[in-house]
Amino acid sequence: MEKCWLCEANFPDRKSLNVHLISSAHRRLSVMCAWCDGKENVYTRIADLESHVKKVHRKVAISMDQFTRENGFDFAKYPEDYAKVVENINPTNPRRPIKRKEESHNKLE
């Protein structure tokens, strides 16, 4: 049994909890575009972020294999929540998503 720490709802498994957290109820596994200046582009799926980056930010110096569910932590709007649910990530540095965003901007300059 998995429990949502935001609303206390119970779910039979982690997959169901993931669906709940992605849904409009919380949108806690959302990822953000690190390269959009001046506005916050948020996506519910890492694949949607990857598609956006390929279309809009063609000069970005990042390999497209970085856009995996595990690496989504680097782009997570709520990294702490993302780390609680998505397996195989190593959130050793809680500022990692912010640092990754700063590094990405520096590569474009």
From TrEMBL:
Alphabetized InterPro entries for the sequence: Znf_C2H2_type
Residue ranges of domain C2H2-type in the record: 4-26
Chain spans, region Disordered: 89-109
Top-level taxonomic group: Eukaryota
PROSITE patterns listed in its UniProt record: ZINC_FINGER_C2H2_1
Biased composition (Basic and acidic residues): 100-109
The protein's name: C2H2-type domain-containing protein
Species for this entry: Dreissena polymorpha (Zebra mussel)
